[in-house]
């Protein structure tokens, strides 16, 4: 059995866990921090909702990103920024398609998530709002990659390509 849980990424002078934007994440722990106040918090859980990344972005005045890892096989990426808005995509699309197919509702990846090229464009805008320069082709490569061997690795590679939390 692989890892299930959230990674929460944001920028603030104070710890993200104490900002009140994530009331359901009492058990979050700081995974890493990076220059300019960037923080990555971890909340291992296969249940529930952690809170609102839109609220987190609004409270910090900076872009925020959630990664929900599902059994180390795939990751739901939810991003928000005060100016450029919110968007959702996933990492390890083939594995995610398997999870969606298991639900039996007949919905596809495209019903839930941005296509990789569109997500790469939104991610470049997200990074720019964060004061970083990101390359759409580099992000696209991560968005279309298979997990090797765990989807969490893709998530941290994505953060690196955004320029917010280097590997």
What's a quick, concise take on this entry?
With 167 residues, the chain is of the alpha+beta class.
User: Structural class, please?
Assistant: alpha+beta
Give the tally of β-strands: 6
The SSE string, one letter per element, is: EEEHEEEHHHHH
Number of domains: 1
Radius of gyration using CA atoms only: 15 Å
Structure, explained:
There is one protein chain. The protein has helices at residues 53-60, 93-102, 109-112, 116-129, 136-143, 151-162, and strands at residues 5-11, 29-34, 38-44, 64-70, 74-81, 85-91. A 6-stranded antiparallel β-sheet has the order 2-3-1-4-5-6, with helices on both faces. It has one domain (5-162). Helices cover 34% and strands 25% of the residues. It is an alpha+beta fold. Helix 4 packs across helix 5 (136-143) and helix 5 packs antiparallel against helix 6.
Tags for this model:
single chain; 167 residues; alpha+beta; 6-stranded antiparallel sheet; 25% strand
How do the strands and helices of this protein lay out in sequence?
Elements: E1 5-11, E2 29-34, E3 38-44, H1 53-60, E4 64-70, E5 74-81, E6 85-91, H2 93-102, H3 109-112, H4 116-129, H5 136-143, H6 151-162
Antiparallel strand pairs: 1-3, 1-4, 2-3, 4-5, 5-6
């Amino acid at each position: 059995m692989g890892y299930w849980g959230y990674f929460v990424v944001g920028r603030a002078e104070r710890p993200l866990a104490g900002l009140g934007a994530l009331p359901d994440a009492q058990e979050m722990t700081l995974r890493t921090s990076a220059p300019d106040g960037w923080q990555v918090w971890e909340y291992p859980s296969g249940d529930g909702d952690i809170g609102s990344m839109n609220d987190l972005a609004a409270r910090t005045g900076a872009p925020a990103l959630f990664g929900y890892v599902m059994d180390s096989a795939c990751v739901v990426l939810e991003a928000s920024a005060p100016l450029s808005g919110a968007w959702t995509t996933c990492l390890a699309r083939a594995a995610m398609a398997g999870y969606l197919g298991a639900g039996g509702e007949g919905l596809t990846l495209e019903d839930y998530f941005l296509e990789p090229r569109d997500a790469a464009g939104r991610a470049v805008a997200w990074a720019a709002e964060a004061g970083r320069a990101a390359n759409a082709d580099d992000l696209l490569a991560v968005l279309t990659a298979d997990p090797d061997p765990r989807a969490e690795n893709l998530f941290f590679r994505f953060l690196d390509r955004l320029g917010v939390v280097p590997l």
